C-alpha cells in the first residue's frame, strides 16, 4: 500500500486538462501556419523533376531530425539533472522536432502535385512512412508525458525515434527518398486512412516497448539491491507505474491498429473484391494483432503484470518492426510500396 | 444456463460441461491466439501457390512430398489451418456464453459496497476540508464525471463512499468477442454462397463465364447476362507510368437490353444484383506485331518481314521456335546517371521475342520501336539483359548486308592487322556497291557491330517494325453475401476495443475517518488495466477539490 498525504503547495499544479487542449490546438495551428508559409513562399522553387533534396520539405525534415537528436540528448541528461528547466527543454525540442517533421510531410504533399503532377498524400514509400512513424511516435509519447507528467520515458522513446531517423538517412543515401507516382491500386482514400492508422498503432507499440526497457532496467537495478536512488533509476517512476504506462501505450495503439486492419480490408475489397488474401504484410499485421490480443488476455484475465509483460511489450514491438520493415526486406507480396532495392 | 456458469462443484460437472470449460478457458484462448500467430508465419516464409516445379527445385523430392502432404503450398486453405481458425471461433463463442452473464453482472449498478482494495493507489486529505461530508464529497466527484455512488461501512465501521465511472466499458467484451464471431460467420456465408473469380474480355468482345479457382483447377460459373467490354484503356502519368486502368463495361441481358453500364477503374467497381465487377488486371489479347528477322547463321544475313501476334509461336524447318512473349506499349526507365536521383522517361514500345533453337538454347530479345539500334537480349538463366548499341538497326538491310560482306571478307583473308581489316572492309564496300567516300563514316560502325556479333554469337537479330494493340481487360468478379456481416462485425470489434481501452472502468473509494475533531478522508482508486499514474493524478485533483470544495479545472 502506498499512502500519501497531500500537501498543498499553493496552486502551482501544472497544466490543467482544459489548458492542455488549448496547448495542442495552438501547436496544430502553428504547424498548419508554417506549412502554409512554406508553400506560399517556396512554391516557385518547385517544379517537375525538382530533385527531392532541393525541396523545401527536405529542409524541414532535416531541422526536425536535428531537433529530435538534441532532444534525445537532453532527455537522457534529464535522468541525471532533475531540474524542471532541463525537462522543459527536452519537451520543447521534441515538440519542435515533431512540428518540423510534420510540416515537412505536409509540404511534401503539396510538392508532390508540382513534382509529379499527381497529388497524393506522402504515405506511399518507405522514406515517407518512416518520417510519419518518427513524428507520430514523438506525438504519442508527448501526449502521454503531458497526461501523466513524467518525462523519464523520453530517454527511451527518443533513441527509437533516432533509429528511425538513421534509417531515413540511409534511405536518402540509397536513393529511395524521391517521391514517385502511385500505381493505380494505391490511389484510394482508404489507403491514406489505412496507412495513417497503421502508423499510429506502430508508434504506440514503439512507445510501449521503450517503456518496457525502462521497466526492465529499474527491475534489474532493484533486484541487484541498487535501490530506488541508484544513478538514473531515481528519475524513473516506480515499477507498478511503469507497468501501467506500458499498458496505456498498448491500449492507445491496439484499437487504432485494429481499425487500420479493417480499413486495409475495406480498401482491398474495393480494389480487388477480396478483404484478405493472406499476403505477407497482411498476415504479419494479423500476427501483430494476435500478439497484443494475447497481451490483453494475459493482463486482464490472467492478471499478468510486471517483468513478463514488459518483455511482452518489447517482443511485441519486435514483431511490429518485422511487419513494418522485415516483410519489405525479406518477403514479397502485394504491399510492395516499400521494396528495398 | 445458470448451472453452466456457477457449477455446484467440480464433481457434479458432467463431461460435456468440462469440455465446454476447457474450450473456453483462458489457457486455451491464449494457446489458440499464439498458435494462429505462429502458424501464420509459415505461409509468409514459404511462398504460397507457386507452381510445383518451384517447390520441387527448392526443397528436393523428399521434402517436396512431405510439405505437399501437409498442404503447405496453400496452407491458409489447408484443413488444419481452417480447423484451428474454426476452433478459435468456437472457443470465443463458448466464452461469450459462459462469461457473458458474469460480465453482464459487472455492468449492473453496484449493489453493495465493494471492499477497500489493498493494492491500489491511495491518497489522504486531512486538516481543514471544505467538502468533508459524504454529500459534499459526492458533489465534487460528480464534477469529475462520476455518476454512480453507493454508501456503506468498512470492516472497522468507518463510513465508505464508492463511486464508479465507465460502467459500460465492459460492453466491450460482448462487442469484441461478438464481432470476431460475426466476422467469422460472414466469412463462412461468403465462402458457401458467394464466389470470386476472373473474366478476361478483349475490347469490343463479351463473355458470360467466370472462372473460379478451385484448388489447382478452375470451376466455371455462367452469369445470367453478357458482360461486354466496350473499351479498355490505360491512363498514364507524364512520366509514362500507368496512372489508371479503365473499362467501359456494359451488362447486356436478353434481347440486347443493357442492364447496367459503367466506366470502372481500379478503385471504383460496378455492382449489379449483388455481383461486383472490379478492374483487376489487363493483358494482351493477341496484338498484331510485325518485325524484321535477320538470320545470322546464313551467309549474307538474309532478312524477312514477319507478321505475327503476341503469344503466337512460329517455327521453321531447322527446329527454331520464335515466340512473341510480350508487347509493352510504354517502358519507363530511370535515365539519371546519378545513383541517388530519379529521372523517369518513357522510351516507348518494346517487344519481347523469345527464340528457342536446338543449337543455341533459349534467348530472349527485347527490341524497341523508337530505339532500333539498341541490342538487348538475355540467354536462358541470365539474371539481367545484356544491352549494347549496335550502331544501326538490324532491320536496315543495306547495313546488314555490308556487315555480312565484311565478315565474309575477313574470314576469307584471315585478316589480322589493321591494314588487312581496312582492305577487307573496302572490298566489302565495293561488293555491296557503297561509294568509297563513306568508308570513314561507316567503317567504325561496322567494325563495332562486327565485334559485337563475334562476341555475342547470336543466331538471329530482330527489329521491331509495327504493332496494332489488342488488349483484354481483366475483371475480378465476386458475389459476396457475407460482406454486411463482415463490416458489422468489424465495426463491433473496433467500437468494443475503443470503449474498453479509452473509457475503462474506474472505481473510487472514499473513507471517512474521524480523529479527534478533524476529519480525514482517504481516497483510493482502481482502473481496469491497472494504470496507476492516471489514477494518482486524478486522486490528487480530487483531493484538491475536496480541500477547497471546487474541483480544479
Ligand atoms: C480473437 C481475438 C480476441 C480479442 C481481440 C479479445 C479481446 C479481449 C479483451 C480486450 C478482453 C478484456 C476484457 C475485459 O476484461 O475488460 C478480453 C477478455 C476475455 N476474452 Fe478475449 N479476445 C479475443 C479472443 C478470445 C478467445 C479466443 C477467447 C476464448 C476463450 C476469449 C475469451 C475471453 C474471456 C473469457 C475474457 C474475460 C472476460 C471477463 O471476464 O472480463 N477471447 N478479450
Structural features, described:
- The complex is a heterodimer of chains A (341) and B (553).
- Chain A is mostly helical.
- Chain A folds into 2 domains: 167 residues, Four Helix Bundle (Hemerythrin (Met), subunit A) (Up-down Bundle); 140 residues, no CATH class.
- Chain A has 9 helices and no strands.
- The longest helix of chain A has 35 residues.
- The radius of gyration of chain A is 21 Å and the shape is globular.
- The C terminus of chain A is likely disordered.
- Chain B is an alpha+beta fold and 553 residues long.
- Chain B is built from 12 helices and 24 strands.
- In chain B, the strands form 6 sheets. Chain B has a 6-stranded antiparallel beta sheet with strand order 13-14-17-18-19-20, with no helix packed on it. A 5-stranded antiparallel beta sheet of chain B has the order 1-24-23-3-2, with helices on one face.
- In chain B, β5 and β6 form a beta hairpin.
- In chain B, α8 crosses α9.
- Chain B is elongated, with a radius of gyration of 39 Å.
- Protoporphyrin IX containing FE sits at the interface of chains B and A.
SSE blueprint and pairings:
The complex is a heterodimer of chains A (341) and B (553).
Chain A lengths: L16 H26 L13 H25 L3 H33 L9 H23 L5 H20 L15 H35 L15 H34 L7 H22 L5 H24 L11
Chain B lengths: L1 H4 L9 H9 L2 H20 L6 H18 L9 H28 L14 E5 L8 H10 L4 E6 L5 E7 L5 H23 L1 E8 L2 E10 L2 E20 L5 E11 L5 E8 L4 E3 L2 E10 L3 E8 L7 E7 L3 E3 L5 E8 L3 E3 L9 E3 L3 E8 L3 E8 L5 E6 L6 E4 L7 H17 L4 H15 L6 H18 L3 E9 L2 E9 L3 H20 L3 E10 L2 E10 L4 H17 L5
Helix pairs in contact in B: 3-5, 5-7, 7-11, 8-9, 8-10
The complex binds protoporphyrin IX containing FE.
Protoporphyrin IX containing FE sits at the interface of chains B and A.
